[in-house]
Design goal:
Largest interface: A-C, 103 and 108 residues
Strand content of chain C: under 5%
Helix content of chain D: 40-55%
Distance between the termini of chain C: 37 Å
Order of helices and strands of chain D: HEHEHEHHEEEEHHEHHHEHEEEHHHHEHH
Protein name (chain D): Sugar ABC transporter substrate-binding protein
Protein name (chain A): Sugar ABC transporter permease
CATH class of one domain in chain C: Mainly Alpha
Radius of gyration of chain D: 25 Å
Radius of gyration of chain C: 23 Å
Structural class of chain D: alpha/beta
Oligomer: heterotetramer
CATH class of the largest domain in chain D: Alpha Beta
Strand content of chain D: 5-15%
CATH architecture of one domain in chain C: Orthogonal Bundle
Number of domains of chain D: 2
Chains: A mainly alpha (310), B alpha+beta (357), C mainly alpha (276), D alpha/beta (416)
Organism (chain D): Hoeflea poritis
Family (chain D): Belongs to the bacterial solute-binding protein 1 family.
Number of strands of chain C: 0
Helix content of chain C: over 70%
Structural class of chain C: mainly alpha
CATH superfamily of one domain in chain C: MetI-like
Largest sheet of chain C: none
Keywords (chain D): Periplasm, Signal, Transport
Distance between the termini of chain D: 67 Å
CATH topology of one domain in chain C: MetI-like fold
Chain lengths: 310, 357, 276, 416
């Protein structure tokens, strides 16, 4: 996402009329992508925006203009507030956990060892299954009486004979976060592996000559060099995790007592169970604004930091 | 500062042996240059000294201590890499201070050391810059500085100047030499450039195909190359060679032929009549004079360097290069006369390549 | 060699917690998929079925149309990968190489398209395709997926393109190749690893996508694999775990094989691209 | 010169895209006869094939109407229907939960069928069930499935514990205690705390304690003294440790699975469980009795609805299809297939329902069946009720307080 530098030669060339024309012609290159996403994503976004400020029946038929009324309703709903808080926990925990696990995993997978390609394939495996399926399988795994998790724990001699993992919000949310981390790891590890392989080996040799232990070269060479990859992994994961629906929906439906509801499940319930498409649209707009704010702030901050280092 | 002793050092990758029993002693404060064509194993040897490559067999001693299984972190050597290997996320000062801060040195001490090094290397104005904003020469200096601040037991250089342009290379070469003179540090320097080797080294180690061909001072190597390989590798333009059969004249003096003309060979050669030898003559050691019409050699190409003139000649089907400081008025196609002086000849056994005189 | 063996042991040891957690559901799937329906909910649960039973897999393909669902998924994933590449390649090329007015705006726009979950947009999306008469049309999914996954493809490709020296193309121009020809003959072959990785990302995302496929494809014979599996859970009073686990296992295998065969390529493509 | 080539590239993309779109939008061949699209959700794996078969029979029987059957999983049904109606792509006939019907009818998505039904057709239904499909005097659909709920008990466990089949909640608690004491992995009674129909499980207790969902003034009955007592009844079971562990994590299916595996002494459930048990646990000895009583006999009557959509252009034909589906023979087959109670008067005397003790109990309880109210915002009310129940069962909140906030929410929604 970094801006490509204009070469001095390009910059100094005079902007003749023909050149400007040529630049406009170059629009042809990005036009197909803009058209495609504008029709397919732009129209639904427009619909959501429109519904957010309208009074809408459960089938999306507009009955009147509502102004900010829907937003007011959203803010007055304690479950929206609770879901927002839980979304924050969900996003921070999943993204944080993913990054914390993905870094050492990527570092190990970047080592040269026997069976590395098998290990890499296994780590990438969760990617091969859709989130909905993963969630479904995990719901079975953690089932209290028939799930394989308790079966395995019992076989190890642990007292989890029929422990009900999804019975409290805290325990259910923890399980969901762990599953969320598990499914985010493949993408994140891949990004980090890409970053690690781009660090020249001589840097490590230089550090070794400088007397750095393995740990020191990890903390002082590897991690700082991974920073751009870390940034992109964080931004993209935050966007994906914030909007991630199937895990929570399939495992707990947001329950018990809304204890695992996040904004996207809140929106889904409003729209498709309660028939309040307008309220759902308003909440969606808020979600969009939060993510936009986050992305802009984050990219701005990291760019600032990058600039300060120059 | 320290001495380095290498005994019968061997390196294999699987079944492929790349170093075949290297023996070498490097004295304290000595500047030793490893030189040889690419693939000769000189970088591998350096990296084995550094600890970056495992030693397959043999021993490496630094200051009398066996170092084979000591990790590079603990060998207390500094290395300047061909790519400089500067840490891109650290400033110049941080790069130089890195090793000291790893050792937990006091901040004031680090600053002093870095400041000193920066002054020696003229880097004071760049301390807060990141490597990517430096020129090649500046980066090279930072890499040097990173080594200097540590006061290591020895400096290892892995072709440090090969990424610089010619002028800068000459300049940095001089700086390295001066630095060595002022610091007196034991240095091992790898290069494929024989000029660098000649100008920098106290002693040069010429390597070929995983073996040491000869160890000696620059002038020893130039004057008495022990093998045909060394003779051909050291000196520019490269030495001229021609092959011939040893014959003895009535006085029992050895000679051979270039084409029809007899050429006297040096006396006291360990060679019998009938042996096939390779005779080497440096381009500077073949006097040349313009001939009227029937000189014994024909000019193929004239190269002017300003100070010297290089002539590429053909004599009885053999190519010769001759260098002269005289301003000869010759052009391609002209005939010239060459003289072969047996005192300047290097004679090698054509089979073994060993020196015979 | 022994050193590498020691390192290998350490690496596997370090990875083992994660590997166990990743493989655990697969063990569960395998165990359950090989059981008869009446073996799943018994007083004592066990890992091993009473006897190996492959009937669930047969049922899946013979009676539940899962083979057809896999083909539909393949069609959509391939189609989406092709279309998104077709639009992302020129866009990424322009971002990397050409002067285009509004580059920054375009980048922001791409980011914005990623900020909204398709679930939120489902009503609008459905209305759109209904208007276009593309409900129950696999191609609708091809376009929908390519629209949503295109932004990531543009980012990946652009950062990859940035690493390819401009000299190479300029050399081709000097050799007399037109811009298009140098793009095709010099540039494209060079960025093949990047394109391969980008394709894989798009393919996997499309292969796993659920909400849009569910909404737009109503007819049983048009469903994709993830939707088909969800439908197996969908009866009101019971979930057919034995069939679901078999289906999930089957849906994993093709992707896993692709991963295994190209993973080194995948990481090489990424590292050269340096997603920045 | 590069310009031309760029244009070429662009044209190529356009052509490719255009071809794809063209291929996609070839219109369906116009049909001479009416096509009636019917959408079903599946109760069991038998549902889909059953209706496919029925449609084939219907299509073979006449030439004017072509029935096309689609089926969807229940969890996705509501979202799909809303999406379809909003885009105008809804089928002509759709299956739905009766509790969604009110909202759909109020927002104009359904067609009233009073004038479409042929003479005498409405009279073939058991009045209770057809009345449930009426709002403001108009009929918005037909009761496609009806069930009452009863108490399933594991005969062997009761025998081992030495208890009789309980008839009151007090006896139930005692029995459950003894069953739980048998074995660590055996639980006295199942209480549902999550998922679909959690509120239904609570209604059993509510109605048998004399409470109701709405009071005589049409306000919420969620916080009445009877409702609090009904909740306390379940809390007592949970606190006595006689329920399955993790009530809040157990959905309807989890309880059924526990009962199937022989781990549960008592569970409250519907007739479909018979069919499931026959298939998955043929050796399990169980009986079905009435729901335990505190003050009143009661059961939960639930119907699902099949309606004609307002946008349908072939409503008359659609009605003909429905009447075919609801003829005596087809209804009986469906009822037997899925294990639902009769919705047609003609079925009530079938030996299948009267002689099988496992079906008869549901029929016996039909007169005391109570129903969820038909209000548009029912789903949202149920959701807040579920949340209040979860807080009460977990002990996080006092039941009276939790129920009061659910009642407030319901009242607010009633006022909307």
């Amino acid at each position: 996402m970094e801006m490509t530098q204009t070469t001095p030669a390009q910059a100094s060339r005079p902007q003749s009329g023909a050149r400007i024309g040529r630049n406009l012609t170059n629009l042809v290159f990005i036009l197909p992508s803009v058209l495609l996403s504008l029709t397919i994503i732009g129209y639904p976004i427009f619909e959501v925006m429109r519904m957010a400020v309208s009074d809408v029946n459960r089938f999306g038929k507009i009955r009147g203009f509502e102004g900010l009324g829907n937003f007011l309703k959203v803010f007055q709903d304690p479950i929206f507030i609770q879901s927002s808080y839980q979304t924050l926990i969900w996003t921070v925990a999943v993204v944080g956990g993913t990054v914390l696990i993905a870094i050492p995993v990527a570092i190990i997978l970047n080592e040269d060892f026997h069976g590395r390609s098998i290990a890499r394939t296994i780590v990438l495996l969760p990617w091969a299954v859709s989130l909905a399926m993963t969630a479904l399988v995990w719901r079975f795994v953690v089932n209290g009486d028939f799930g394989t998790l308790n079966l395995a724990l019992t076989q190890l001699g642990l007292p989890f004979n029929n422990h009900p993992w999804l019975a409290t919000a805290a325990s259910a949310f923890t399980i969901e976060i762990l599953v969320g981390i598990l499914v985010s790891i493949p993408f994140t590890v891949t990004i980090f592996l890409g970053g690690l392989t781009s660090i020249p080996v001589t840097l490590y040799e230089a550090a070794a000559m400088d007397g750095a232990t393995r740990w020191q070269s990890l903390t002082r060479i590897t991690l700082p060099m991974l920073r751009p990859f870390l940034q992109i992994a964080i931004v993209l994961n935050v966007i994906y995790v914030f909007n991630s629906f199937p895990i929570i929906w399939i495992m707990t439906n947001g329950g018990p007592a809304n204890g695992t509801d996040i904004l996207i499940t809140y929106v889904y319930k409003q729209a498709f169970a309660f028939g309040k498409l307008d309220v759902a649209a308003a909440a969606s707009v808020l979600m969009f604004l939060v993510l936009l704010g986050f992305s802009v702030l984050y990219l701005f901050m990291t760019r600032q930091r990058g600039a300060a280092g120059q | 500062m320290s001495s380095i002793a290498i005994r019968n050092l061997t390196k294999s990758y699987g079944s492929v042996q790349v170093l075949h029993g290297i023996d070498l002693d490097i004295a304290d404060e000595e500047f030793v240059v490893l030189v040889g064509p690419s693939g000769c194993g000189k970088s591998t040897l350096l990296r084995m000294i550094a600890g970056l490559e495992d030693i397959t067999a043999g021993d490496l001693h630094i200051d009398g201590t066996r170092m084979n299984d000591v990790s590079p972190q603990k060998r207390d050597l500094a290395m300047v890499f061909q790519s400089y290997a500067l840490y891109p996320h650290m400033t110049v000062a941080e790069n130089m201070a890195f090793s000291l801060s790893l050792r937990g040195k006091q901040k004031s001490a680090i600053e002093r050391e870095v400041g000193d090094a920066a002054r020696i290397l003229h880097l004071e104005d760049y301390l807060d810059r990141l490597p990517k904003s430096l020129s090649g020469g500046q980066r090279q200096r930072v890499a040097m500085g990173r080594a200097i601040v540590r006061h290591p037991k020895a400096f290892l250089f892995d072709e440090p100047l090969s990424n610089l342009d010619a002028k800068l290379r000459t300049h940095m070469r001089a700086e390295i030499k001066q630095l060595h003179q002022s610091l007196g540090a034991t240095s091992v320097y790898v290069t494929h450039d024989q000029i660098e080797a000649m100008t920098l080294a106290d002693r040069i180690v010429v390597m070929n195909a995983g073996r040491v061909e000869q160890v000696g001072t620059p002038l020893e190597l130039f004057d008495r190359p022990r093998t045909r390989f060394v003779a051909g590798f050291i000196g520019a333009p490269a030495m001229n060679f021609f092959e011939g059969k040893v014959e003895l004249n009535e006085q029992g003096k050895p000679h051979t032929h270039i084409g029809p003309s007899p050429v006297a060979l040096p006396e006291g050669m360990e060679s019998q009549a009938g042996a096939i030898v390779t005779v080497g003559l440096r381009p500077q050691h073949i006097p040349v004079s313009a001939a009227s019409t029937d000189g014994n050699a024909r000019v193929e190409l004239v190269e002017q360097t300003g100070c010297e003139t290089n002539l590429l000649l053909k004599l009885a089907g053999i190519d010769f290069t001759v260098q002269t400081r005289d301003r000869l008025e010759v052009n391609a196609g002209d005939a010239v006369n060459l003289e072969f002086d047996s005192r300047n000849m290097h004679v090698f056994d054509s089979n073994s390549g060993q020196r015979l005189n | 060699m022994t050193r590498k063996a020691k390192r290998s042991a350490l690496c596997w040891l370090g990875l083992s917690p994660l590997l166990i957690v990743v493989l655990f559901p697969y063990a569960t799937m395998l165990s359950t998929a090989l059981k008869r329906k009446d073996e799943i909910f018994q007083f004592e649960t066990t890992w091993l079925p009473d006897s190996l039973y492959f009937g669930n897999f047969i049922e899946l393909f013979a009676n539940r149309g899962f083979g057809r669902a896999l083909l539909n998924s393949l069609y959509i994933s391939f189609g989406a990968t092709l279309v998104s590449l077709a639009v992302a390649l020129p866009a990424a090329y322009a971002l990397s190489r050409l002067r285009v007015p509004g580059k920054g705006t375009f980048r922001t726009y791409l980011l914005v398209t990623q900020l909204i979950s398709p679930i939120v947009l489902i009503v609008g999306l459905f209305r759109l395709f209904a208007y276009l008469g593309m409900i129950n049309d696999l191609n609708a999914l091809v376009f929908a997926h390519s629209a949503f996954y295109m932004a990531f493809a543009v980012w990946m490709l652009q950062s990859y393109f940035d690493t390819i020296p401009k000299d190479l193309e300029e050399a081709a121009w000097m050799d007399g190749a037109s811009r298009l020809k140098s793009f095709r003959r010099v540039f494209l072959p060079l960025c093949l690893p990047g394109i391969a990785v980008t394709s894989l990302f798009t393919f996997v995302n499309s292969w796993n996508e659920y909400a849009m496929s569910l909404t737009i494809l109503r007819e049983g014979s048009l469903q994709t694999a993830p939707v088909k599996i969800a439908f197996l859970t969908g009866t009101l009073y019971e979930t057919e775990w034995n069939i679901i686990m078999a289906a999930t296992l089957v849906a994993t295998v093709p992707v896993a094989i692709v991963f295994a065969s190209i993973q080194s390529y995948l990481i090489r493509g990424l590292s050269l691209g340096g997603v920045k | 010169m590069p310009k031309r080539n760029i244009r070429g590239l662009w044209a190529g993309i356009l052509v490719a895209a255009g071809a794809a779109t063209l291929a996609a939008s070839v219109p369906q061949a116009a049909l001479a006869k009416d096509t009636v699209r019917v959408r079903f959700a599946e109760y069991s794996t038998k549902t889909g094939p059953f209706f496919k078969d029925l449609a084939a029979q219907f299509n073979a029987s006449q030439d004017e109407i072509e029935v096309v059957v689609e089926h969807l999983p229940w969890p996705e049904m509501q979202q799909q229907l809303i999406t379809d109606i909003s885009a105008g792509t809804a089928p002509d006939i759709s299956h739905m939960a009766t509790r969604w019907m009110a909202g759909f009818a109020v927002d104009g998505a359904l067609a009233p069928i009073d004038d479409l039904m042929s003479e005498g057709f409405a009279e073939t239904f058991v009045p209770t069930f057809l009345d449930l499909q009426k709002i403001d005097g108009q009929t918005w659909g037909l009761p496609i499935a009806a069930s009452a709920r009863g108490m399933f008990y594991n005969k062997k466990l009761l025998e081992q514990a030495g208890v009789d089949v309980p008839t009151t909640w007090e006896e139930t608690l005692e029995a459950a205690k003894k069953i739980s004491a048998l074995n660590d992995e055996v639980y006295g009674i199942g209480v549902q705390g999550s998922g679909l129909d959690t509120e239904g499980y609570w209604f059993y207790s509510l109605w048998t304690h004399g409470g109701d969902i709405t009071d005589e003034n049409g306000r919420s009955g969620f916080a009445s003294p009877a409702a609090v007592a009904a909740t306390q009844n379940y809390i007592d079971l949970i606190e006595a440790g006689v329920t399955q562990p993790g009530v809040l994590g157990s959905n309807r299916e989890d309880l059924q699975n526990l009962f199937t595996a022989g781990k549960l002494g008592i569970v409250l459930s519907g007739p479909w469980l018979n069919a499931q048990l026959a298939e998955e646990a043929p050796d399990l000895e169980y009986g079905i009795a009435e729901i335990p009583v505190a003050t009143d006999r009661a059961t939960y009557g639930v119907t699902d609805t099949i309606s004609i959509l307002a946008d349908s252009e072939v409503k008359d034909s659609a009605m003909k299809v429905l009447e075919f589906f609801f003829n005596d023979e087809n209804r009986l087959a469906f009822g037997k297939n899925e294990g639902f109670v009769p919705v047609l008067k003609s079925m009530a005397n079938e030996p299948y329902f009267t002689e099988d003790p496992n079906m008869a109990v549901f029929l016996d309880m039909s007169p005391v069946a109570k129903f969820a109210p038909l209000v548009p915002q029912w789903e949202e009310m149920a959701e807040s009720l579920k949340s209040a129940l979860a807080k009460s069962y977990s002990g996080d909140e006092d039941p009276a307080a939790a129920l009061t906030s659910a009642a407030d929410k319901m009242n607010a929604l009633l006022d909307e």
